[in-house]
Records
---
Amino acid sequence: MQRYTVKGTISSFKLNIRKSKSLLYALVGAFAFLLFTFNFSGVATAAAKHYTELQFTLLPEIKLPKYERFVLQNGLVVYLMEDHDLPLVNGTLLVKTGSRLEPPDQVGLAGFTGAVMRTGGTKQHSPDQLNELLEQRAAAVETSISEAAGTGSFEALSEDLETVFGLFAEVLREPVFAQEKLDLAKTQAKGGIARRNDSPDGIASREFRKLIYGNDSPYARTTEYATLDRINRADLLKFYGQYFYPNNLILGIVGDFEPKKMRSLIQAKLGDWKSSPKITKSPLPAVSPAKAGGVFFVNQPQLTQSSVLIGHLGGKFDNPDYAALDVLNGVFNGFGGRLFNEVRSRQGLAYSVYGYWSPRFDYPGLFIAGGQTRSDATVQFVKALQTEIKRIQAQPVTAKELALAKESTLNSFVFNFQDPSQTLSRLMRYEYYGYPADFLFRYQKAVAATTAADVQRVAKQYLKPENLVTLVVGNQTTIQPPLTQLATQITPIDVTIPSPPPQAKN
């Protein structure tokens, strides 16, 4: 008991260190300020400069921390990156799977597999025993499956690494998918279905993806009561058995460890895990635009404002024009961007407005613009968005706009490498999707080389004003002028939640 109290939690441990550093920095800063004031109190206030006149030195060149990559005989890919700043070790696992690969009549299966894999315990430890062992060490082990990948993670103090990594390996190799934990997960999912229309923005996001990708697309379909009822424990075991093999995984570990010992630990816990000769790259679902325009409406009589989304199908990160499209995002967005200046500041139509090209790694993303506006400004807001999309195609980007967009993009580049775990996660993600390890640095150089002509060229090539899909979630009676000013045909969308199927009688 005393040992547990002394350790506290990992988050508390980190917080205490940060507080100590913050206090030190604050004292040093205060001393420097007093020294500056004492020595330079006679400097005239007229010497102060406007923020636009400030000059800053160039950011230092970013270099990747040293790391090691190797592959076990069973096919498990491993990345190791040392970081001895804190006595902590973190691990991340990527599994080549995803909810987009689950059967269309069992939407939710992948998510349940990822969740109950952890909550359901292992062959050696019940759920309660597993939780207790981790809590005693202020450690964590988690698993999940999202749209395009399965993930696992562990977090431990360095002195508990062997124990926690052993539990992590158990969860990966010996999950039992306890029935009561699946039942609990399904109950929680049913609660989520019942509440899914509580948020106007949530409705807009969900229904917009259906309009772009199609109702039956794995990138847009939703979990329903009926799909939940078709999922049982055997289905979880089958889904797990299709993808969880060492030759289908990428493991990354960063933190305070000795590399030789870490390699031995990985070999001891995962080296004898049998690979699967049947593992092949699963074909990805085809993607094509479900709609090529139109105005769609979800009536929510209780609302006093409208949530608006307009856009169309987009592209992928590996597009050669990705950097120029990202600079285009900078021209559109943020303080000083065209949408902010025109739609928010000059016309006062929305507090928040945005528009951006949003790619994905291995399937087309979206071009999307939108925001929230007053009901009586809905039509004007949509027209303002349409106007700005057309204007960026027709009106050349100014030197000032280009400089601001490129500088904000390049200056934010450093935040991709704030800590080693972030860097390691990026390297793993690039390998997972088949991108080169230096992809981000190539992107950085391409942004620096982007010209105003490039921005206008990609705006003309990739933005399709004639194919914009418009979705409004709002109050039909208070949207005046009516949406018919945008199009002669307004297609209503029914978001009524299908009732649960009747329970079978015993």
---
Amino acid sequence: MHRRRFVVVGVIVLLAALVSAPWVAVEVAAHGHVHQPGDAPEADVVIVLGTQVVSGQPGDRLAGRLQTAAALVRDGRAHRVLVSGDGHGLSGDEPAAMTDYLVARGVDRSAVTADPYGLDTYDSCARAHQVYGIDRALIVTQPYHLARAVTLCRHLGVDAEGVYAACDGCSSATLAREHVRDFFAAGKAVWDLVRKRPPAVTSPAGLAVRRNRPH
């Protein structure tokens, strides 16, 4: 009986370690490359990762990212912004909403580039380097997402430094859900890097065949 219990506990511990390994790898890879907005280094470009818009307006998470990006531009820590998201998503055109939000907060429209085919974090990072020629950038998103974003970008050719974005209107339940989601998303991120997955769309205008969006 004791031996069986020991085996069961051992299996549980092993499974937990296997499930956690990608998340740990992502966190370790991003260590030393994440910053509070006031401590962020300078870079020519700040990348803002898209997420849900509501009735054409950025939701709480996206608004927090955009507010942080606008502050980085105002402070002279960045000069251009790449807004990267799904331009044809069910919730609306993310990059268009992001661009308008930044312009309304004082960012020159000519300083904003919209990538409508940043279908997930991996694609946003890959396209930032491959399509838009970005080699170094700040990348802005919430803490639960930042390590994965930094790790992906750094492995895909962008010397990225992460900057924490707030989420003032987010509930505790929302943040807890996103933390859990990102824990498991780390496994997919590592797998995408290992197999060197190409982005779903590889041209600026989206002329390449668009594959099914990975989940």
---
Amino acid sequence: MFSTTRQQTHYLEIGPANGQLMIFLHGWPSISLMWRAHMNAFAAEGWHCVAPDLRGYGDSFAPEANDAYTIKAVVTDMTELHDQLGGKPAIWVGHDWGSVVAAELSAHEPERSRGAVLTSLAYQPQGHALRTVVPLIDRAIYPADLYPDGQWDYYRYYTTHFNAAIADLDADHAASLASIFRSGNPDGIGKISPNAVVTRNGGRFGAAHRAPPAQPDLALWPRADFDALVQKFKIRGFRPACAWYLNDEANIAYARRAPDGGRLSQPVLFVNGEFDQICSITGNSQGDPMRAACADLMVTTMPAGHWLPLECKAEHIEAIHAWLRSKNL
């Protein structure tokens, strides 16, 4: 546990203290334990591996105010933790919102980053927000008159029905998490995502307003780790995690203050899930701003859904290995 006057961060740590630093950042709705396989693999090779619970998650600081969950605040949390760990330039590995944090930290604090691995969510140099991602929607799949927010409708629903969205998720934490963490399905490619009709259905779970009973996908989470995840959400609820979706304007303003227009000079690996109905960059323009903003970008695609680091643990680890070797990192 690391504490300052402004925050408290719980983190996992493994590997030699004098090893090169690799920091793993989870996304929504996860915790540091999602990186167990990755940390064990890289620590065995001499890396100093650290995975924090980000603000609002696990055992870390979870402020009451929804406007406390800005990317700037989380990046500041991470720079303070990085100083505590010695402050040497690190490899930052992110998934989902963790990719946003890894990329923004690399843009705003380039001396802290030797390279970034972004997974399942492309870097938006103007900030990850509805205003930046909606223009990139594939309108061949989501006609604007029927699906104005496309696959990001669930994101819009948080901004318009936040309390209702949280109540539905909190009705049964185990079932909610089991329903969210599912392996990818190739049958969804090119089809309407369930996340595109959340507003139309009156919530993620429709009229039931709670997740249907479901067993966890043990191909993603070891049972003990899934139970730990559920326990953390039983304590905190979904409000802190979902408050990350409520700070678009602050996040855009912060992104626009990055040096050089947010251009990343470090090597960047983007790992794309081919079956990811929300964030895949295959066959659409979602990855275009990232391609334009990265001086040294490598993209690899895997047959997986959004939870790629859990679904393809060994393959994701090997992709990072190969990229590190190719860049002499």
